[in-house]
Amino acid sequence: MQRRDFLRCAVIAAASAMFVPRVVFAKAATERRFVFIIQRGAADGLDTVIPYADPDYARLRGAAAVESAVRLDGTFALHPSLVETAKLFTQKQALFMHAVASPYRDRSHFDGQNILETGGTQPYQIKTGWLNRLLSLLPHEDHEAVALAPTVPLALRGPIDVISYAPSALPQPSDDLLLRVAQLYQYDHQLHGLWSEAMSARSIANGADPGADHSRKNSANIGAMAAHFLSQREGPRIAMIETDGWDTHTAQTGRLSNQLKTLDTLVASLRLGLGAAWDQTTVMVATEFGRTAAANGTGGTDHGTGSVAMLFGGAVNGGRVLADWPGLSPGALYQGRDLRPTLALDVLVTAAVSECFGLDPQQAGHVLFPAMKADYRAIMPLLRQ
Amino acid sequence: MAAITDVALAVNHFGLGARPDETLPPDGRGYLLDQIETYSAYTEPWSALPASADVLTADMQAQYALRGQSAQIRSDAQRDRMAAQHDIYQNAVQARALSALLTPTPFIERLVHFWSNHFALSVEKGAVIGLAGGFEAEAIRPHVLGRFEDMLIAVEHHPAMLLYLDQTTSIGPDSPAGLRADSNKTMGENAPKRGLNENLAREAMELHTLGVRSGYTQNDVTEFARALTGWGVAGPVEAAQTGRPHADPENNSAPGTFQFFPARYEPGDRTVLGRQYSAQGEEQGLAILRDFAASPSTAQHLAAKLARHFSQDTPPQRLIDRLTRTFLEKDGDLTAVYHTLLAAPETWALPAVKFKTPWEWLISSYRALGRQDLQDIKFAQLMTQLGQPVWRPGSPEGWDDIAASWAAPDALVRRVEMAQRLAAQAGDWRDPRALARLVLPNILSESSATAIAHAESAVSGLALLLVSPDFLRR
Lengths: 385, 474
Hints:
Chain A is of the alpha/beta class. Chain A is about 35% helix and about 15% strand.
């Protein structure tokens, strides 16, 4: 791929309900495509790519442990909701990376997402996003940009201008927000009653579990729309899709299952929509941090550290789980509670985009994650050359 | 600590909500008193709005020009006319909201909103939809720090109020115009039925001044209505109604402004609340209005409403009594009443108990998000979605000022939906934890702070801040 072929950048994003995936695109005259899917809210890696062979997993999760997972290798199994993703794995087009974390070691969503998107080591230290800085590495003649969302996510913000275009439909509040509002009003004698009443009226009006179905349909639409743009001959080559609802402090079994089904639908619709272009596409999925190794008292998990990142695409060197597994024994856990990170997310991101666009990883890493000290030999190649 | 709390109340309870880009004043009460000195009635964006006289004149001329045209032409023109009036309304709502976002005197701006609602008109009456903004700008804003009597007379003289409460159609039965209409009828002509209309007289007594059940009788209302005959609006519409291009050649009122029409005035002395008024013509109605403005019933009525707005839904009687006393002792000087209000411990109490109306909530939300403009925002539409369309309370009684009217299940869901949208528009421009401490200094509860801090994204944290119990109340 010729770097001088890059022509222009465009950014597009779309907002929708519940799962609320928002897509952002950037244009470049290359046949290679890169899609970054962010999981906002700290997705649980241990229940996504399950270390079934680790005896401590069942002990830590107890009744909440995932059943009927699909075995990937001698150590790991895939959550049963990830049906299409499992097929990609069989076709060696899915690569899972476990015990992954950004440099962030505290447990605030905002700070964690800020670091994940800016590529800094301290929250709010860097003002631009690494995807925007990635664009700046690519020669361009035209910075025309469109966003189908009210705002451009931080990862894509920076000196390269982005125009936003908001869809007119008012998104319904996400289930996560409704749940949090309920907690917020728990001790307010006036608002608590009003909110309970409103929510029971809402569930009667909607029927059983309307959100999950709606959210999957929605996700398929977002995936198809993103694929449509990316597969155009003159279309954008970089997309960012935001998803939320991953903060499963309670009832994780059902909620995570719905979340993963939606993610599965999103990835499958991207692949379907991209057609032949899938071979030139790299999709990366990552979250700000993981969740506690043990289940909590409300059938959920709390903010943790290490989690899972994923790569999908026709060129991905897949069909394997990349991990330096630290184990889940009490002594192995980070601060006695979390999956200890053994792979650096910023190194994985740099390797993936460098291989995708033919950049030198050392140079790219310097721009994307200025503080990073990286050794790429252990993990490359992530794509088939 | 007490000082910080006072500052928080000054900004959020007396003002329109904190802005993160404004430094908090050192002293809450002093900050509010300063605003009384620095308030200006005609600043941007109000000064850019058309005067209601111009709006009305253009509209009346357009109508006048259609006389004799075919039904089709008239109906098309009518549609265009309403669309134009609606545009004027929407621009005025934008101006009102923008002014509330950026005003350097938010306490006085709140008082403008209070008095505008006290003297409410409602724009589902097509005749006033283009005049509502001008009414607030011309009758309320210049008088908000003056004497109540001056505001009252400006209101009852304003074409918007005269049209809204049907005063322009009221004709004394024994006036020259009334007698002529009567004789037309006996002659068997198909003359329009014309006579006394009590609407303005009744609402001025019940809502604007004395208050309901304050002791007046139907006879007092009818007498006041007789005294108000002749009050109308100058211009082509009057010419159209009377069939004469100039109703009174001696009158030099500008078109679209107040005009007294002697031909409709019911001659004679009036007796209202036991007092006789022998002055004739416009002066008779004015004399009665002035007595209403100075009445202890009016003082109590207004004091109770102000106390409810600035303390709690059921205000303490002693606060009402103090405000009443000031109003009467200071001859209806509203600034003196505000001083009493600001000196009252009952208005500085925590925790906040006043549940924000949709208007208060949306304005304070945009202020908290640091919004500097309303580009791409249709404020009138948002207020309709939240259930409080601006200047459209549906009756001259105005909007309720109690939680029971606003804190309802569906209304709460709408605020959550709106909060999510506002937060998504704002994006993750700011750490919501820091913002929450900034806009709710010392009044952010521990549980709200925790919920905001635990939100799964900055956008979701912002939305939670806007619907937190601490932010829903002031």
